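debug: dumping io for the single-chain case to check the tokenizer round-trip. Nothing else runs in this session.
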Amino acid sequence: MIKSNLTQGLIIIFVAILIAGCNSEPEATLSSGINVQAAKQMIVQNNDVVVLDVRTPKEFARGHIEGALNINIHDPAFPQLASTLDRDKLYIVHCAVNPRGGRGDKSINIMNQLGFSNTLSMDGGLRAWKRAGLPINNT
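debug: decoded output
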């Protein structure tokens, strides 16, 4: 009786693991986050930091972080454009508000697939940067 219950329990656990592992679509990896104050400090102190703004060119033109590079995540050429970047640099990636799983995280997931390992998602995106009173370039 005990052996039968143990066997049934193991079968149930095995089936549960098997079903959980059969998800045909891979989960997106949520990127590591950094707050705007820490991002600002890293930008000022480290020449190997690149701010990557993944908003549309129209959004970028309305205001962006000084020195930011703009590559639109909605551009079908995003993977090709990102693949030309220096993989040895640290990228602080953001969009307008950087919700978890949003444009910033999607960009980082693509970059990670391309072999980038030094990427951070700026929590709150440009909105948080502005709210913190940090400078914006409007040109």
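debug: round-trip ok. Residues 65 and 136 are 5 Å apart (CA to CA).
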